[in-house]
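Hello,

Our lab assistant flagged a job as stuck in the queue for most of the afternoon. It eventually completed. Since we weren't sure the result was trustworthy after the delay, we are filing this so someone can double-check. Below is the sequence as submitted and the structure that was eventually returned. Let us know if re-running is recommended.
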Amino acid sequence: MSQMRALVVDDEPDLRELLDITLSRMGLDVVTAEDLSSARRCLTENSDFALCLTDMRLPDGNGLTLIKEISRDYEQIPVAMITAYGKVDDAVTALKYGAFDFVSKPVDLEVLRNLVRTALKLRQDDAEKSAPQADAGDAAPPPRKPARTETTDEGKSLLLNRLIGDSDAIGRVRQTIAKLARSQAPVLISGDSGTGKELAARLIHDLGPRAEEPFVAVNCGAIPSELMESEFFGHMKGSFTGADTDKEGLFQAAQGGTLFLDEVADLPLPMQVKLLRVIQEKSVRPIGGRQELKIDVRILSASHKPLKPLVDAGDFRNDLYYRLNVIELHMPSLNERRGDIRILAEHFLESIGEQWGEPARKLGNDAVKALTEHNYSGNVRELVNILQRAVTLCEGDEISRHDLSLDAESMPDETSIGERPDDRSLDDYIEEVEKRILENALREARYNKTEAARQLGITFRSLRYKLKKYEID
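-- returned structure --
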């Protein structure tokens, strides 16, 4: 491949020179421009740039204008914004306009190099996809390291097909994920419990330039508040009682890759402040540490609770919300994609058969009708649980409506509890219902408390409290 070229747009001669020297030492051929019109002329003359770095404020216009134009006319060029220190709003706006990433002034060269490396991976993937394939009669090419599967169109299609279904709703999700994978902008994945938010996050990671680096997922509601800072940022030996060794935090574990914050709405306010600072500064300080550690991590987050009402109520910081919600990806509920239910069910029955070492069961017509008409509160996760139970109960090779036991999914009435509501207090009745729901969720989650909490849509701490309250072991 010929030497890659970079376009640097800034009206400060000293900064242009610094960026020119830094990028040249990384093997790039650097072209500089001092204003918007010069940058446009460079793009018109030769648009084969591997990346573009542009300042926000230029003598004859705004860097946001250039970002929009590049995103529209040269979408193959990753463009990053250079923002003034502390101008987080500018960075967020740039990301919304299509910027690949941002770097703050004064420019930290380590942060800049990480940004450039990630951009070059995208460009290299594009080049590998567009390279002509050798004919059968051509000489064999010299051996080289195999390209990552996700850099090919076929590989991307295979990964995106992990989102099963052919409805318009899931088709739009696939298209959006493919676009988000090219960006480094934070993404907030919204949707009800069981809609596949973590799967979407993994696909964004696997399809992007960070695919070879770690993907670290954490359920924010499952970490005790007193341990949260240590879990996220790590700690040094002796920094507190019980800190017998140095511990790496989640941000350090995800270095170079992606950190997925599931159920981010459950973060306590003090931790929200610390998280915001880390995202803005791109550095962390372990508990007991004296130095800031630079981090290169893409942040993806998810919540089954709408965050805006929490912001309005003062339970979630407004500045963190807008920093995480640069782009929102909504995962549709199963009730919004009923046409996919049969396809999903048949796929999961195949998987259950493979996992359990049994022939895959078939669905009877009455079972298909019942599954399609069922109201899913737990979405895809609930569908899987229903099918696992049906496979267990089914005596033949075809699952019937009766095997699905969907009637048992409804709220228990007084006869199912064994006592009429009129014969006891309302509080006692409600507690009995809640206890049964907890017990059912634990059984369906194979007694994995974290999974049971996810199914119920409550935090791990809340589940632990309720189990203790009802003395459920």
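-- support follow-up --
The delay was a queue issue, not a problem with the job. The result is valid. Residues 235 and 287 are 4 Å apart (CA to CA). The first strand starts at residue 5 and ends at 9.
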